[in-house]
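Convert to structure. Protein one:
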Amino acid sequence: MNRTMIRLALTAALLASTTPVLAAPSALLRCDGFGRRVSTGESVARGLVILGTLGLFGSAEADNPAARETGDKGIQACTDAMADQRVTGNPIRRAEVFLARGFRHYEMGHFAAAEEDAKTAQTMVVPDPAKPAFDRTVGVSALLLQALIRTAENKPEEAETLALAAAARRPWGNFTIEQALTVLMLSPTISPGEAKLLDRHFQLWPGSMRAQAREAAGDWAGAASDYAAVIKARVEGDEVLEARRAAVLALAGDTAGAEAAVKAVRQRIDELATKASGTDNAAQVAGQKVARADEMVQLARAQLALLAGRTDDAKAVLAGRERWLAPAPIVARVIANAQAKLGNSGIGSLSLDPAKVLADARAVKLNDLSGKKIVGLMMIAWPRYEDIDKANDFGKDIALPVPQVKQETARDGATLKIGLQREGATDTGNEAMLVLAANVAATRGAAEYAIVQRNSSLRLPREGLSDAFQTWQIVFPTDALWESQKGRSISIAAVQAELAPQFPAPPPVAKR
């Protein structure tokens, strides 16, 4: 999943939520934007006897996310909605309302009230057939909310326990793992639990979260290795990431590797700079990339000069700039290394306090985990209950021998491209794609595979962040790209044992 695409989709949804509402919405719509919860899978396939009345009483209002109230008004709307027959008659819907009120309490800094609502939502008694899906959706969101509350209360150990508990309920869910890691990565220290989660995320998505965590922890060689794998997975490379890798290699003490990386990326930056002239959007994007990449090249050059004992060269680079937009761990370490040899001259960035650079960056991250910004993400993207029959629908699509799944070579035969067209919560779709990829790999006699590219069509229905269509590019041990990606390999046996049972194949049709 492309994280930039997620941010764009969320931004669009948040803007849409400001649309004026013409009809007077009910308290339920003003609470979380959704009406009664009833689905074909719940009411027909399983029968009303199983799930009770399902909140069938009351108005059949259409969902209207634009009606959501924020702050204290949102809290009151959710409180009023508790008496709505559509809520009293359905424990799942009631849990969602408690969760929404918890989000609003968190928004207003009412942490004790937010935690009480989160726990109530998490422990709601729901019918046994729905319990596994409930725990993997509403239960996950309730645990993530409690993790953020503990973070806001400066209780990092408890926050980590809750974040890991949320991820454990969806151990192959890329979105859930990312949300948990936003809490865990506030600390530069990588705990054993966080390390396992970072490893899993690196398997599921060719992105740089693990590299960033390793940077913050001072594991420069590990970060450089991760960046190399990510760059290889990208079709057209990435000048900013390549420059960042050069800086990290220099901090790892790999002079030869860093010098080679600097030389290669400076050529690419020069080429990109030719596209930065002009005023159109493409030129602006190119200009931003050039500026960001060039900063990290300068930091790499400064560190290389320090390694070689050329302190005057390092001073020339660092004294000429008072401010850096590069990642704080890299900036802080290069400055600290320079000050250890040159002292704090009070000139340019040599006057900066490395500890303050890191503290300021952490403060920004903490601020991003509070207030309206994060609550907007909670309300529209965090998991809500997903019909338990969705997994069965995916099971029909991915069952062996998967003849209905489109398969084609990509990158001139370097990867295999597979696709799946069915809307579902993003983690559900991700899990189904993992099983599909394993099934395809099994038909080719492979024991493992690696994901080198993922694209999806994002939606924001009542289940939270969802995908309507996914395409992946995967590689196997016999492919040329495998050498750079084998550290991200996924075991087919593990996927088939842990995930395949969640997506049962339809029973065979009896022959007449």
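Protein two, convert as well:
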Amino acid sequence: MIVGVLLFVLGMILMLNKDYRNFLFDIHPDLEIVGFLALPSTGLVITGVGIMLEFARRKYEMQK
């Protein structure tokens, strides 16, 4: 979960960085979208899976 949050925060920092945005605008529109969305969305997915597994573990331990 912590890795997912860190990836999300890193992606948001990169999105807010002016030099990074200017670098992406010079490449290609498709790569721009991937560059903007890859880190934050990956971070959110990892965080969501981690939260889901944590709740599943707690429910399993309560049923035991």
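Helices lie at 2-16, 18-25, 29-63. The two ends are 24 Å apart (CA to CA).
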